[in-house]
Amino acid sequence: MQMKSGILIALCLCLSLNEGLALLEHEGETINRCIQNYGGLTAENAERLERFKEWSDSYEEIPCFTRCYLSEMFDFYNNLTGFNKDGIVGVFGRPVYEACRKKLELPFESGESSCKHAYEGFHCITNMESHPFTVIDNMPNISPSAKDAMKDCLQDVHQDEWKSFDAFAYYPVNEPIPCFTRCFVDKLHIFEEKTRLWKLEAMKQNLGIPAKGARIRTCHRHRGRDRCATYYKQFTCYAMAV
What we know:
48% of the residues lie in helices and 3% in strands. It is mainly α.
């Protein structure tokens, strides 16, 4: 089974309405079967599922759909035993599991999973999978100190800006969250203000860049409109150098 960030019920359902676009195996039939009691795969139900991540934390717009869908499609959920820890960690990563653990574990007084349990657990997963803190925790070659610094810096900006965090992965010309790079770089002390030079060994230890043998001779010369932009441009140069 292959699941990547962004593969959610909502997207899969939209694909099922368009012939020629691929779904997971048997997904179209499963979706139809699971909402048969609510009119089947109508345009109205498609719009409902497209809003899956926007539904209330505790209210499923199409009752019991999630329990049916998960039990038929994936090995990480069972109608009786609920969510399987190893399965969730294997597909979504340990940070997502830990963030949603209380919702994924069977309620103490319950002998088996319920529609409510299935929905609340999976709804948490789909919302946490792209959460900036989860993305940071899953970053390879990043030290714990660097991850903590990045999280601290996100706390300093309004949460409305957090939605721009994913854009950093594409190294756009302008920094998605202004001054974010300067913030975590300063916390890690990997830039020397007096000399205007980067501490490359400290950068490698904390952030895994630049790559060995990368062409970085001119990176420290990049300039932006202000200090934050300069930090971002130079850091991006080191990160992208080959």
